[in-house]
Amino acid sequence: MPEPPPAIEARNLRKHYGAHAAVQDVSFRVEAGQTLVLLGPSGCGKTTLLRMLNRLVEPDSGTVFINGQDARSQPAEQLRRGMGYVIQQVGLLPHYTVAENVAVVPRLLNHAPAAVAARTNELLTRLHLPPERFAGQYPSQLSGGQQQRVGLARALAADPPIVLLDEPFGALDPITRASIRREFRELPELRSKTMVLVTHDVTEAFELADQILLLDAGQVQQLGPPRELLLRPANDFVRRFFAAEQLALQLRALRLEDVLGELPEAINRVVTNNESDFNTLPLTASVQLALEQLSHAPARHSGEPVVWMRVSDSTVRPLTYATLMAAFGRAVRRLAAED
Ligand SMILES: Nc1ncnc2c1ncn2[C@@H]1O[C@H](COP(=O)(O)OP(=O)(O)OP(=O)(O)O)[C@@H](O)[C@H]1O
């Protein structure tokens, strides 16, 4: 059986504005259900690249394939109706109510009115905008965060398999931004979607990406999973881009299973299934989470706080600040040296 084509493939895309090369020979693939984050400094070409995927910008050369089909093989409007598109400015229609804004694309696609109404209510409820309060309101009556959610509901209304997002949380303050991002990540609606998301926020990129494409001056600097860019930067630009937040990102990116082999021999404890004494962490927990737990953990006999890591069904192993941080340092060096 031949492999299915990627949901999105960009091949050798280029775009010039006059003499300025906004995007230079960029290629990538996004497999179905995966999230690609386009990351880079202001003006590096992220938005131009994203807009080439739904043909709001036509490339000078190169090709976009959607499910193996050249994006130019259908009219641009039809292509766009099959893709959700969320932008920072939200772009809600001011004279339409919230419900009417959400229903724009399903109506264009001639979905049955009852189905459109049911879908609108479902999405507003999921996005914490109770329809009985919000459906009849106008965009000007909503806060920025609420408008952003309506924009997301609108992009998802026709259940498109692909969603493009351009700085979708960009206009929000940091606290609202973090909480909407959390909701967004947990939305069952988005689990199976193929997404391409533009941001210049490194933490956001690490939270949401399966793959990151880091751009500078229209050129790909590195493409890969977040931890690969962090631990094995391809060049100085990549290294410098993450330098300021390197430690925080490493603590989130490394899991206890990465540091397990670096821990000193310790006495494992046997636990029974019904023993609830131990606040245990799975091996998939991040080092960051273990440190957070340690900060709340009671001191043991030695006087040091201890948390427990589950190494098998019946055994747990102690972690202290000292053993965890020493093992973390060794694991970072080991992973950075691996090919
Ligand atoms: N319509 C246009 N006409 C002329 N130049 C443009 C146009 N659109 C973008 N550019 C230029 O192309 C370059 C890339 O712009 P783009 O908006 O893709 O960058 P970006 O990485 O998304 O930036 P930001 O993070 O600031 O939104 C910039 O130098 C920009 O000035």
UniProtKB/TrEMBL annotation:
<dbReference type="GO" id="GO:0005524">
    <property type="term" value="F:ATP binding"/>
</dbReference>
<keyword id="KW-0067">ATP-binding</keyword>
<dbReference type="InterPro" id="IPR027417">
    <property type="entry name" value="P-loop_NTPase"/>
</dbReference>
<dbReference type="InterPro" id="IPR003439">
    <property type="entry name" value="ABC_transporter-like_ATP-bd"/>
</dbReference>
<dbReference type="InterPro" id="IPR003593">
    <property type="entry name" value="AAA+_ATPase"/>
</dbReference>
<dbReference type="Pfam" id="PF00005">
    <property type="entry name" value="ABC_tran"/>
</dbReference>
<keyword id="KW-0547">Nucleotide-binding</keyword>
<comment type="similarity">
    <text>Belongs to the ABC transporter superfamily.</text>
</comment>
<feature type="domain" description="ABC transporter">
    <location>
        <begin position="8"/>
        <end position="242"/>
    </location>
</feature>
<keyword id="KW-0813">Transport</keyword>
<dbReference type="InterPro" id="IPR017871">
    <property type="entry name" value="ABC_transporter-like_CS"/>
</dbReference>
<protein>
    <submittedName>
        <fullName>ABC transporter ATP-binding protein</fullName>
    </submittedName>
</protein>
